[in-house]
Amino acid sequence: MSSISMDVPILQINEYELQHLVRFIYKHEQLLKEFGAIKIQLNTD
Question: How far is CA 3 from the centre of its chain?
Fold first, then answer.
């Protein structure tokens, strides 16, 4: 099995957005469609 490395956008998410994850994903739906994936990173600020 081979793995393909590709760049995907990394989005910062805060506690409120994490609680409303579906809304967050819908908000960034265009990026998801364009890249096929997104990385979500918790913003600890």
Answer: 20
Give the model confidence (pLDDT) of 6-39 as tens digits. 789 999 999 999 999 999 999 999 999 999 999 9
Q: Do 2 and 32 contact (CB within 8 A), yes or no?
A: no
Number of domains forming the structure of the chain? 1
Question: Could you say which DSSP state residue 36 is in?
Answer: S
Residue type for 40, please? I
For residue 40, being part of any structural domain is answered with no
Which of helix, strand or coil describes residue 7? coil
Q: Which domain holds residue 23?
A: 7-31
pTM of the full structure: 0.72
